[in-house]
Design brief:
2 copies of one chain form a homodimer. Chain A is α/β, with parallel strands linked by helices and 430 residues long. The first copy, chain A, contains 14 helices and 17 strands. In chain A, 36% of the residues lie in helices and 27% in strands. In chain A, strands 7, 8, 9, 10, 11, 12, 13, 14, 15, 16 and 17 form an 11-stranded mixed β-sheet that branches. A 6-stranded parallel β-sheet of chain A has the order 3-2-1-4-5-6, sandwiched between helices.
Chain lengths: 430, 430
């Protein structure tokens, strides 16, 4: 062991602390795996005086990230600060300075992954980001390596723990959205401002990263149709359950004739589907390869320790290849283009809950609107009426239909004098 | 692309055919990933005249494996013949001749993995075996790489598709073992001689491989207590279900005080456990790491295409490192010893079904036997009597107890004049 592997860290929050702790506690074991000791040489932080969960020698801390890039004793930069900027600038600087990069930053990789992968490749360096999606669940490496022989046809994922916790509470306890969110916030599963999670943006970042690797084509967050979970009602969970379904915030990227469909939205999933059984703060990703068939990866998708586990795995992999002299780096970014399909291209079955006047002939009028647009009804259920308001609820499951036709029919239904409200409209998957 | 990567294959059966087909159909894509074309230069088979599912130029075939080892144009040997010998001799010869090896052979790796890993490392070569466990489910690479930062505390797996298919039929359709086996044989999920699967040997091979990697200590098939599924009755599935459990053939390797417990046996698993939900021919492996927490990998555990997917992934990985000049190889075999615990060390809850004379006082006598050995009863259920034979069934769930105490109590129970038979005895996991 003539040399050591120098590490520079940017950020020392929850994940960074977990990484430092793992390196401190298992240094000897890691050194055996890699063939050289891993040494944290410098850590860039905003506030060196801030109390930390791990103890590090104060002289390692700096507020100037440039010191890391200029240090010839640093081989790998670990970026765990999060956010788009200045993280992107730092990562580019690190690559320019000849460092490898490990990042846990999903926003960065979702928005800039292809550019960063190309830049890394051009400089004979690597950027690794297992921790950016799904915490400690191996996902990036399996896509990059283990499934490489496959043509991948779909990626379907329950990939946001906050919303899955909320939806699981709504399903199992009949909680309304607001209650379940408040509970999640109380337990620390949801942020004080939960927008990023509950509107589906976080899931869309993760899907963009997975889909870009799976299809070897750029899928940007802005390519992904994204809907959140804020409009769901406890009743929908009850009705879905009666029909044999659960409601999940599903991130899907799949090949369809003409291109790629990429979407994050709450959907009805049949109870027998593996993803329907993923409850609480667990995440799961189901990948369909033409050789492997369906492969499912499940685990805790967030948290300091699972995420640190992923960062360290990347770090050990990179460090090993530095020690053992891998000459060049494989390019693993996009190889081509894939057309991204719009919602008009989607065919699906649909679940609709409509609040209507409780009088004869109403169902016939709704059915006509659907029939006029060639949407045929698979099942219909009239739910108990609200006597005070003289309204009733109709729950309709359709056969497969084009989403554009369904939306046109719903517009007409909403305009009917007998319709109080189109309360919920969800796709049915699987 | 100055050079190509030469491949020699040993065996051209179902899996070998799948590998050749993938290389033929995706050669160009693979060449881009690896940085050089992959060329099958020679295939050793027993009978060159045998009809094959893939078409290969007849001049590639040979009955003499030695020709492969002596060919300087061959970089990697793909061993897909199966069985212990002559596979072991061939793999050793390949390493000796400076070739890397990819194998799908679980018996070989379970029995000889540590020796072969050491031999490969000593020669600066690698032996890869993703396809030896779990078909197309990534398991070996995640253990070798993605979970490396973790201390792994348990590996629990439903890892034999044949038995899982049989048990699923028994659970869902009330089929008896013999019927379910016959059905599995008819569908090609079970061999004409099903011993290797139904007695748990196949699962024990796979567990030996996984545990050796997870605990970095040799776990041999002979270290694993192995029981099969042939004595289960449809009634046990029904009673288990009433108690909220399913019955699965579970392969477990877990750290316990004093050493490692390694076992393959049918057990009761609570319905809420992820592994309880893995039905039919699916396999799943649940790994508990101290950082990641529980991570689950699920997919089709067998079949030509999933297995070929795993072989090709290893092949691409090796080929890439040959092209890009990785100087040395990481040793990833056992690092130390771990004491293997015997059954006397096991503590568990237990499920027992006893057929007894249908008369007063019987339960009290059974309960006394258990109590005398400090096994306490958690639940007891008297099932409908068989009036002709004047017998009844008692289904007992115990609290946590030592298996040695439980076995001693059962011996006494079996000897009671009121006992017709101790019909089933299973551990309860989770």
């Amino acid at each position: 062991m003539g040399r050591s592997i120098g590490i520079g860290m940017i950020g020392l929050g929850v994940v960074g602390g977990g990484v430092v702790r793992a390196l401190q506690e298992r240094g000897e074991y890691f050194a055996r795996q890699v063939g050289a000791p891993l040494v944290v040489r410098r850590i860039a932080v905003r506030d060196p005086a801030k109390p930390r969960s791990v103890s590090v020698p104060p002289e390692l801390l700096t507020t100037n990230a440039e010191e890391l890039f200029e240090d010839p004793g640093i081989d790998v930069i670990v970026e765990v600060m999060g956010g788009e900027e200045p993280a992107r600038t730092y990562v580019l600087r690190a690559l320019e300075a000849g460092k490898h990069v490990v990042t846990a930053n999903k926003e960065l990789m979702a928005k800039w992954g292809p550019e960063l992968l190309a830049e890394a490749h051009a400089r004979g360096r690597d950027i690794m980001f297992e921790a950016s999606v799904g915490g400690g669940i191996p996902l990036i490496a399996p896509l990059r390596r283990d499934l490489l022989a496959n043509r991948i046809t779909s990626v379907r994922a329950v990939i946001n723990g906050t919303t899955n916790y909320i939806l699981t509470r709504m399903a199992h306890e009949g909680a309304e959205y607001g209650e379940a969110l408040a509970e999640a916030q109380r337990l620390g599963y949801a942020e004080p401002d939960p927008t990023n999670d509950v509107e589906g943006y976080d899931a869309a970042y993760k899907l963009a990263i997975l889909a870009t690797l799976a299809f070897r084509a750029r899928v940007a967050p802005s390519d992904i149709m994204t809907e959140g979970i804020t409009k769901l009602s406890a009743r929908d969970f009850q009705y879905a359950s009666e029909l044999g379904y659960v409601i999940k915030l599903l991130a899907v990227a799949e090949e369809r004739p003409g291109g790629l469909l990429a979407r994050v939205a709450p959907v009805l999933l049949h109870q027998s589907e593996p993803l329907a059984k993923v409850d609480g703060v667990y995440n799961a990703v189901q990948i369909e390869g033409d050789l492997t068939g369906m492969v499912l990866f499940q685990g805790r998708g967030a948290g300091a320790e699972p995420t640190a586990s992923a960062v360290v795995a990347d770090l050990l992999d990179l460090a090993h290849s530095v020690v053992y002299g891998t000459r060049d780096r494989k390019y693993w970014g996009p190889e081509g283009e894939i057309p991204i399909l719009g919602p008009e291209a989607v065919e699906s079955r649909f679940y609709v809950r409509v609040t209507v006047s409780d009088r004869p002939g109403v169902l016939a009028r709704l059915a006509k609107c659907l029939g006029d647009h060639e949407v045929s009804i698979a099942a219909v259920n009239q739910k108990e009426a609200n006597e005070d308001q003289q309204t009733a609820e109709l729950v309709i499951m359709t056969h497969r239909a084009r989403e554009s036709a369904m939306l046109a029919a719903l517009k007409e239904i909403a305009a009917l004098p007998v319709t109080t409200e189109v309360s919920t409209f969800l796709r049915v998957e699987g």
